[in-house]
Amino acid sequence: MSDVVFGAFMPQGWKMELSGIDGAAAKWQRAVDIAVAAEHLGYDSIWLYDHFHNVPRPAHEAVFECWTTMAAISQRTQRVRLGQMVGCNSYRNPALLAKITSTLDVVSGGRLDWGIGAGWYENEYRAYGYEFPRPKDRIGMLRETVEIVTAMWAQAETTYDGRYYRVHRAHCDPKPLQQPRPPVWIGGGGEQLTLRVVARLADASNFGGNPDEWTHKRDVLRSHCAAVGRDPDTIRMTWSPELCVRETEAELREVGARSIWAEPFDSWRAGNLVGTPDEVAEKVATYVGLGCRGIIPWCTDYPDTTSLELFAERVMPQFR
Question: pTM of whole model > 0.90?
Answer without folding.
Answer: yes
